[in-house]
Amino acid sequence: MASHTNENTELGKLKQKIAGLEKLEQQHKKVEAKLKTVNKQLQASENQLKAYNEQLRESEQKLNQQKEAAEQSREFAESIIDTIRQPLLVLDKNLRVITANQYFYKLFQVSPESTKGNLLYNLGKNQWDIPELKELLKKTLPEFSAVEDFEVEYQFETIGHKIMLLNARELLQKQGKERLILLAIEDVTKSRIYKKELERLNKELEIKAEELQQILYITTHDLRSPLVNIQGFTKEMEASLNDLKKLLEKMQIHPAEEKSLNTIMDEEIPEAIHYITSSTTKMDNLLKGLLSLSRLGRQKLTFRKLDMNRLMQQVLDDFEFEIGKNQVNIEVGNLPDCMGDDLQINQLFSNLIGNSLKFLKPEVPGEIVISGGRVENGCRFVVKDNGIGIPREYQEKIFGLFEKLDPKKPGIGLGMNVVKQVVEKHNGSIEMESELGKGMKFSIFIPD
């Protein structure tokens, strides 16, 4: 009985141990399940962390790229600014210098260290403390309005007297960023000095030209008096020669002496008179041409709107006999009205058409074509003929004084020079195209 009781006791203990083991196993399984869950969570967290790290790496890479691009853009912009041969400043709203280009440092003899971060007015020992500049910036910069070609004239301590044009603009930046001002400085000192000198020289040239015109006018007038006397005395010589011939016809003269006298009376004296007459005629034409040039130079222009169709008809009417005599075909297109002096424009086209008529080809029917039209800021007229043309080597000389295409032709070589002067007095231009044997073409621009 006691043995049976002991067995039951041992069996109970064994069952308790088994139950404890089962409970422990269940707890182990729960812990193991929890560990698996934790491991899964850790794995997920690790994967998420890896993803975050990858995103962070990509963001860092993009940020570095953006920083590099921004640095390149800044260097690129600075290199452009430094290349510009004009002083440039970038200022903040308080007029402190953010940056400047190399040309600013060079022109105003200041260093980057003494410039960046300092007030504009304090630069270079306060040499930018300019009252006009202060007043300008005080009025315009609070509203960040643009400044265009504001002129400042100032005596700088280091670089002397300067005349400058200032231009200012706000630099566009992203919203929320500090507003900046770009100040461009153009040194126009030399150009203004050159301009004043040019104006002085032009004025002096005008005075000299006026004096020359007066001298030319007086000289030609003074020369005409003795010329008229020579022409008069020559006619008297011709009349006296005829009277002398009549007297000699009534006188009894030895045949040998008569022959000698006839040689003198019929050949030598008439030849001398011919040379005198020819020379005085040339001199007379020359003086008339010089007088015409003198009048052209002194004439005051009266600009008005010209009916060019009417004016051209007047010009052609003056050449009616010569046109008919040479059977020249004249073609005139519809011409635009232009602004000019009536008398001088008439003279211009008279000389051009007269020139074409003078140099026709005898073996070919003559033809002169006149056309015109409106162009930008004015009118262009063209006079074209089928005459003998001009050799290439002569074309540069045609508008010179006393230049003649054919010395045998009448005239003294002033006509084309007058054409050039009229065009220049109207602030226009003239161009010529020609080939020997293929005629001439003159293109004239008359501005509004």
Describe the model:
- This protein has 448 residues and is of the alpha+beta class.
- It folds into 4 domains: 1-83; 84-187, PAS domain (Beta-Lactamase); 194-298; 303-447, Histidine kinase-like ATPase, C-terminal domain (Heat Shock Protein 90).
- Helix content is 57%, strand content 18%.
- It is built from 10 helices and 12 strands.
- It has helices spanning 2-83, 102-108, 123-126, 131-140, 189-250, 255-298, 308-318, 320-326, 342-358, 415-425; strands at residues 88-92, 97-100, 147-156, 160-171, 180-187, 303-306, 329-332, 338-341, 367-375, 378-385, 429-434, 440-447.
- Helix 7 (308-318) crosses helix 9 (342-358).
- The chain is elongated, with a radius of gyration of 51 Å.
- The mean pLDDT is 80.
- It comes from Tangfeifania diversioriginum.
- It is an enzyme of class 2 (transferase).
Helix and strand string, N-terminal first? HEEHHHEEEHHEHHEEHEEHEE
Question: Which second-level CATH architecture of the largest domain applies?
Answer: 2-Layer Sandwich
The total of helices stands at 10
| Cα radius of gyration in angstroms | 51 Å
- Detail the poorly predicted runs: none
Main sheet specs = 5 strands, antiparallel
Number of domains: 4
CATH class of the largest domain: Alpha Beta
Assign the structural class, choosing from mainly alpha, mainly beta, alpha/beta, alpha+beta, or little secondary structure: alpha+beta
CATH topology of the largest domain: Heat Shock Protein 90
EC number: 2.7.13.3
Protein name: histidine kinase
Pfam families: HATPase_c, PAS
Enzyme class: transferase
